């Protein structure tokens, strides 16, 4: 494969293992790819607080990361913000009030803080999974003081589908509503997707979509997989993600991204 100039790589269930780490093998392959002059962009639904440790573990320098599935671009080491678009505060508060009325678990992200009503099974699971430190604020969580970077609903997959359908009826033209895991439903700023933000970054670098390889596993990766000239889904990806991919690599637990890069790039 020739003239690949940029890699866009999702973290959870794509590059990162279930224990929130990357292997030494994956790290070494990424360093070798970077040494060939190929740009590496993390593209994740995570906040800076939880994406930064993975970026540091990758040891790829102070590179920009796409966070909140496209709503924020921030450098790994320095934390410099290069782009930010938050959810409209009035729309966010409508959604939060709906969550309160229906007793849906929701968490809000403002200024790199994870805001939660109170400690629950969902908040403990999220903290354990990605290392985020929740701030418990009671009913204040249902009234955002400013536009949040993201809202996240966590529930069993069937309930998530119900919440997704309910929100789409009222807010489909006001926010991006996308699943990042079967039990995670993200609410992001309108038109802020991984694909749109990646396209802007690629254009600024003077590159073309056909020079981009994107790796992903979930619904919030589809936009960047459709944008990239080469789209690779990991073996553990959702079926609708595999359907838009050009190739399938081994799972995140089997260092699938690194194996694909070693075979096709190095």
TrEMBL record:
GO terms for cellular component: cytosol. Transmembrane segments: none annotated. GO terms for molecular function: magnesium ion binding; sugar-phosphatase activity. Its EC number is 3.1.3.23. It holds the Pfam family Hydrolase_3. It is an enzyme of class 3 (hydrolase). SUPFAM superfamilies: HAD-like. Keywords: Hydrolase. NCBIfam families: Cof-subfamily, HAD-SF-IIB. This is Sugar phosphatase YidA. It comes from Veillonella ratti.
